[in-house]
Amino acid sequence: MITTETEARAWLEQRPEYTPEAAQRLDTLVAMLGQENQQQNLVSAASLDQVWLRHIVDSAQLLAHVPRETSGAWFDLGTGAGFPGLVIAALRPDLEVVMVESRARRIEWLDRARLAMGLDRARVEGRRLELVDSCHAAVISARAFAPLQRLLELSSRFSTSDTRWVLPKGRSAKQELEDLRKWRHVFHVEQSLTDPQAGIIVGTLTGRKG
Ligand SMILES: C[S@@+](CC[C@H](N)C(=O)[O-])C[C@H]1O[C@@H](n2cnc3c(N)ncnc32)[C@H](O)[C@@H]1O
């Protein structure tokens, strides 16, 4: 388990995606987030004291559950402050990372951060998810966006049997998966590296029952 900022930085440093350029992009994000959080409530002020643990590595750990050879679009739903979307884009600049976010000030923030970080292949889909055109996502992530059942209702149209879902779900991961009735899936729960109580739902969606 990663419990300190030092351990979080050390974990990142051993990731193959953590190039000098990626490190610079993440440093830019951390600096900008600290400033922007004084203008709008993006993340809790307390969490900024552990920003590498609570936000950067909490997001980056999702990469361990996605095959390295994955190409295509990574859809991050309800990106808000930028998590995990901006972190994934910083570490995998080769991927088309699509950050779906509906609130105007957050859309403006995400776009500004994306440009400052030099993320040419990432983009912000600044509207409600319900209004985004259907297309195929290679990966779908969503942190603190919606309960699992609702999340699948809203976003299964972006998924095929090849789409990898990676859903940080906090303490409710196992329960939400057990309660899932209407869907056929090959999901399981992985332990979060940043919170002993939290799980990440990982896997593929194979269809809807009935
Ligand atoms: C609780 S925040 C989580 C933000 C970020 N994923 C994180 O973990 O820090 C949820 C975000 O989803 C956005 N959101 C909620 N419903 C949405 C919808 N239907 N379409 C797009 N964005 C939505 C909100 O504006 C908000 O920024």
TrEMBL record:
GO biological process, one term: methylation
Catalytic activity reported: guanosine(527) in 16S rRNA + S-adenosyl-L-methionine = N(7)-methylguanosine(527) in 16S rRNA + S-adenosyl-L-homocysteine
InterPro entries from the UniProt entry: rRNA_ssu_MeTfrase_G (IPR003682), SAM-dependent_MTases_sf (IPR029063)
Cell compartments where the protein resides: Cytoplasm
Ligand binding (S-adenosyl-L-methionine): G78, F83, L129, E130, R143
MF-aspect GO terms: methyltransferase activity
EC main group: transferase
Main location: cytoplasm
Keywords associated with the record: Cytoplasm, Methyltransferase, rRNA processing, S-adenosyl-L-methionine, Transferase
E.C. number(s) listed in UniProt: 2.1.1.170
Pfam families tied to this protein: GidB (PF02527)
Record function comment: Specifically methylates the N7 position of guanine in position 527 of 16S rRNA.
Family from the record: Belongs to the methyltransferase superfamily. RNA methyltransferase RsmG family.
HAMAP family: 16SrRNA_methyltr_G
Protein name: Ribosomal RNA small subunit methyltransferase G
Species whose genome carries this gene: Novosphingobium organovorum
Taxonomic lineage of the native organism: Bacteria, Pseudomonadati, Pseudomonadota, Alphaproteobacteria, Sphingomonadales
Gene: rsmG
